[in-house]
Write a structure and sequence with these properties.
By secondary structure, the protein is of the alpha/beta class. It folds into three domains: 4-125, 3-Layer(aba) Sandwich (Rossmann fold), CATH 3.40.50; 151-314, Hypothetical protein af1432; 316-379, no CATH class. 54% of the residues lie in helices and 12% in strands. The protein is built from 16 helices and ten strands. The protein has helices at 12-22, 34-43, 61-71, 86-96, 108-150, 152-155, 158-172, 177-186, 196-204, 210-217, 219-227, 234-241, 264-282, 285-294, 301-314, 354-364; strands at 4-8, 27-31, 47-53, 76-81, 100-103, 317-322, 332-333, 337-338, 344-346, 373-378. A five-stranded parallel beta sheet has the order 2-1-3-4-5, with helices on both faces. Helix 3 (61-71) links the parallel strand 3 (47-53) and strand 4. Helix 7 packs across helix 13 and helix 12 crosses helix 13 (264-282). The longest helix is centred in the middle third of the chain and has 43 residues, at 108-150. The two termini are 38 Å apart.
């Protein structure tokens, strides 16, 4: 398998030399400016290594790599320049997050060896990303699904919040959607510390009194302490800690960052969680949206715009009523599901999964379930 390498230099003859000497080892792409290179990175998401010259007109190598980091997060970045100035090297490392700083001239043989090392670094990065996307994400899903089945009163809203967060970050064009999805699923992990009177009120959509509200807010600290113990989820833990903190500094905790200093994840969670809570309180999406609009100062205005946009996109769902045998993973319950003995099995908004279907079949042997279930189906 050939890996893709992008060379950026304002001298065409230099780029042609790279292509001649290295094309049998790599898929070589070239660009004559930082602007052209950024456009190429948008088109080719599989660039493994970026090698850029420092001294280029309009946009120098440091400026280019700083922007490239946002477009191609996994790409390994190298700086090639004849300027051995120490400050240039420090800027390149700190701002462009480079893997190596290479002085000119660099022979084809030396460049080949450096690129081989860079490819190994890229493989490590991609392998870690895959581990996070699969093993860790699946473990989180299993944990939260188990908690949702065991205690739907506390964890029944996880699926709803997760959908709001995913729809919002997709509208924003954010990368690492899996991270935001994990954040949404773990945001309410601290609910395990809440008393039953609080969880009962939350389930029924009833407002909390002052002392209950104070106790409720502290669940974010419990969630933060639990999640911060999981390797590679430090950013997720911080977002959970500040999920109840307003953009204007209101909310919990009273101290700490506010505005643009708040983690992006916590700003998204604040919107998704408030919307979900007040939709439950008011009983309609319109009332929840009206509350959000009325208190706009609490929310990041840029994320607010994308969140409202995503609500419109996410409402492309059809309400259907289906029997147990017609339930399929991916559907979303439009109402709470109770047994004939008033035992809550799942909450409104929870996603249908294989585990949920199996649980229904098991309960149907000894309890009477509704003949049909109201579900939302995406088309």
């Amino acid at each position: 398998m050939k890996y893709a390498v992008l060379f950026v230099d304002d001298e065409a003859n230099v780029l042609n030399a790279y292509k001649r000497n290295l094309r049998k080892y790599f898929d070589v792409y070239t660009a004559l400016s930082g602007k052209d290179a950024l456009e190429m990175l948008e088109k080719h998401k599989d660039i493994a290594v970026i090698v850029t010259d420092m001294q280029m007109p309009s946009m120098n190598g440091v400026e280019f790599l700083e922007q490239a980091r946002g477009v191609a997060k996994n790409s390994v970045r190298l700086m090639l320049t004849g300027n051995a100035d120490q400050k240039t090297a420090i800027d390149a490392i700190n701002q462009g997050d480079i893997f190596r700083f290479i002085n000119k001239p660099c022979s084809p043989a030396e460049m080949l060896q450096i690129l081989k090392l860079s490819i190994k670094q890229y493989q490590l990065i991609v392998a870690e990303q895959e581990l996070l996307r699969t093993t860790l994400k699946k473990s989180i899903e299993a944990l939260i699904e188990t908690l949702s089945l065991a205690c739907p009163e506390s964890f029944g809203s996880v699926s709803r919040v997760k959908r709001h967060v995913i729809d919002c970050v997709k509208a924003m064009g954010a990368q690492n959607v899996w991270m935001y999805e994990s954040m949404a699923m773990l945001a309410q992990l601290g609910y395990i510390s809440l008393s039953k009177d609080i969880t009962d009120k939350l389930m029924l959509g009833q407002p909390l009194d002052e002392s209950q509200q104070e106790a409720f807010y502290k669940h974010s600290e419990v969630g933060y302490k639990l999640v911060s113990k999981i390797p590679r989820l430090e950013d997720v833990a911080l977002a959970i800690r500040y999920q109840n903190k307003g953009f204007d500094g209101s909310g919990f905790p009273a101290e700490g960052p506010e505005g643009s200093e708040l983690p992006v994840g916590s700003r998204i969670l604040k919107l998704a969680l408030d919307y979900e809570r007040f939709e439950k309180l008011g009983g309609s999406a319109e009332s929840a949206l009206a509350y959000i609009h009325e208190h706009q100062a609490r929310y990041d205005p840029r994320i607010f715009k994308y969140f409202v946009q995503s609500l419109g996109d996410a409402r492309q769902l059809t309400l259907e009523h289906v029997g147990l045998m017609a339930l399929k993973p991916g559907m979303v319950f439009a109402e709470d599901v109770m047994t004939d003995q008033e035992l809550l099995l799942v909450s409104k908004g929870q996603e249908v999964t294989e585990c949920v279907i199996d649980r229904f079949y098991n309960f149907s042997r000894h309890h009477k379930l509704p003949e049909q279930f109201g579900v939302y189906v995406s088309h």
